[in-house]
Amino acid sequence: MNNPTIQKAAPRPRIGFLGVGWIGRNRMEAIARSGTVDVAAVADPVPAAAEEAQKLAPGCERVDSLDALLELGLDGLVIATPSAFHAEQSVRALERGVAVFCQKPLGRSAEETKRVVDAARAADRLLGVDLSYRFTTGMRRLRERIQGGALGDIYAVNLVFHNAYGPDKAWFYDPTLAGGGCVMDLGIHLVDLAFWVLCFPDVRRVSSQLFTQGRPLSRRCEAVEDFAAAQLELTNGTAVQLACSWKLPAGCDAVIEASFYGTKGGAAFRNVNGSFYDFTADLFWGTSRERLADPPDAWGGRAAVDWATRLAHGARFDPESERLVQVAGALDRIYS
């Protein structure tokens, strides 16, 4: 009797983590738990952060730099460093043939973002960005219903992200290191969600007002904004209003909302009781509503796990990455 041929499973991708502060460790834990890849190494300038990360993946190597990570023959790299370094670090990894998953923003401008996307295309490597709100159950269900025509033609979008606190790291308040304030930190999620739901229409006009500590901010390089209000007119005629802030006296930890209004009805994705994590999603017709999603919903690490899973299945450059440049371009116009 002939023995059946036993095929060996393909080795799992080896992943490194550059920057393992709170968000880096959170994404590392989600990816490690998924079992789709092997956590091979971590690097962080803060020894305590690196030590905590190693506890999540016993046996992973600890190194001291991006260069050292890239010498390990990795298949993928997760980047969670200050924003000023994202584009350069991503390009360096991609040019070495390493797939990249990066914290947002991928670049501080459309120019930086395009440079990374171009590098991913040239290397034919998978590029992902942690635009995590796309992976909430509520937003996915709303997008499916909106794109299916449940609301008719969308003519207005209202985006709000007010944070009663500000970031706890000093680099967020340095315009050179951060590239911007609350728009770059919070508004990027909402602009991305609106474009993603509406199939990425072009922007015709943008008007905006930026403030820092209650004073108008005239130049992006002077300081980072802690309040922003903007209106984007899209080429399909849709009016998009955006308001976002740090340290706003909102009466709760956070106010987060993405609402869509169309010729047949409305829809809203909203946080619950000031939470940063719990959301509802509803469809509206006049004074009635249909609930699409309720908490709990463990969505925080889904974007990272999705990238790791696609990498494990051999995914290469995804042309959808080019949409990242469009979102970055809209932010540039808000700042200008």
Q: How far is it from the N-terminal to the C-terminal residue, by CA?
A: 75 Å
Shape, please? globular
In spatial order, strands of the major sheet run 9-8-10-11-7-12-13-14-15
Total strands: the figure is 15
Sheet with the most strands?
Answer: 9 strands, mixed
What is the tally of helical segments?
10
Strand-pairing-aware structural class: alpha/beta
Q: Rg, please?
A: 21 Å
Query: How helical, in percent, are the residues?
Result: 25-40%
Order of helices and strands: EHEHEHEHEHEHEHHEEEEEEEEHH
| Mean pLDDT figure | 95
Unreliable parts: none
Q: How large is the share of residues in beta strands? A: 25-35%
Summarize the structure.
This protein has 336 residues and is α/β, with parallel strands linked by helices.
What does this structure look like?
With 336 residues, the protein is an alpha/beta fold. 32% of the residues lie in helices and 27% in strands. α1 (22-34) runs parallel beside α2 and α1 (22-34) packs across α9 (302-312).
Give the topology, please:
Layout (H helix, E strand, L loop, with lengths): L13 E5 L3 H13 L3 E6 L3 H10 L4 E3 L2 H5 L5 E4 L6 H10 L3 E4 L7 H14 L3 E3 L7 H11 L6 E10 L11 H4 L3 H16 L5 E10 L2 E2 L10 E8 L4 E8 L7 E9 L3 E6 L7 E7 L2 E6 L8 H11 L10 H13 L1
Parallel strand pairs: 1-2, 1-4, 2-3, 4-5, 5-6, 7-11
Antiparallel strand pairs: 7-12, 8-9, 8-10, 10-11, 12-13, 13-14, 14-15
Helix pairs in contact: 1-2, 1-9, 4-5, 5-10, 8-10
